[in-house]
Write a structure and sequence with these properties.
Elements lengths: L5 H10 L6 E9 L3 H9 L1 H7 L9 E5 L6 E8 L3 E13 L3 E9 L9 E10 L2 E11 L2 H23 L1
Helix pairs in contact: 2-3
């Protein structure tokens, strides 16, 4: 194996194992102005409506303290577990272009791993706004795939919400 990054090579040498994580990236174009998309992804009054599993009402008992260092907690209805809890902390807020936070499922064996990182990046496009959602830090491919499905549902709900 040829290593292109000497910093990474040094980390591998020091730990004797290659750090491996998996990342998902979703891009979606919305026919809505940047400011509208920003408000819907960053304001509590919107988050508890579009966020959550497809075909279900929104999340339960949401807590969103949308500021750097602020915490969030969501109780998400699911078919298999009833209610699952997601917690995290906002790590970056750059209106109206970027919001980032950590993400962790609490007490759900399916996703029994440490915090991962989520970023919503917005950019203007002709007639609307591009969203690039990046979720990184998955220890295995399968959790990444399941989150890809879940984020797809959430982004579909976001799109429908923006159209109303």
């Amino acid at each position: 194996m040829i290593l292109q990054n000497p910093t990474t090579a040094l980390i591998w040498k020091m730990t004797d194992s290659a750090p491996t994580t998996h990342t998902l990236v979703l891009k979606r174009f919305f026919k809505a102005p940047l400011e509208r998309v920003w408000s819907v992804i960053s304001e509590t009054s919107h988050l508890d409506i579009w966020f959550g599993e497809a075909g279900r009402e929104g999340i339960k008992d949401p807590v969103f303290d949308v500021r750097v260092g602020g915490k969030f907690e969501m109780h998400v209805p699911t078919d298999e577990s009833g209610i699952v809890v997601i917690v995290g902390e906002y790590t970056a807020i750059e209106p109206p272009k970027r919001i980032a936070f950590t993400w962790k499922w609490v007490d759900w064996e399916l996703f029994d791993f440490d915090y991962t990182d989520v970023e919503f990046a917005l950019s203007e496009g002709e007639g609307g706004t591009w969203l690039t959602l990046t979720h990184s830090g998955f220890p295995e491919e399968r959790p990444k795939e399941l989150h890809y499905e879940g984020w797809g549902w959430a982004i579909d709900k976001l799109e429908a919400y923006l159209e109303n």
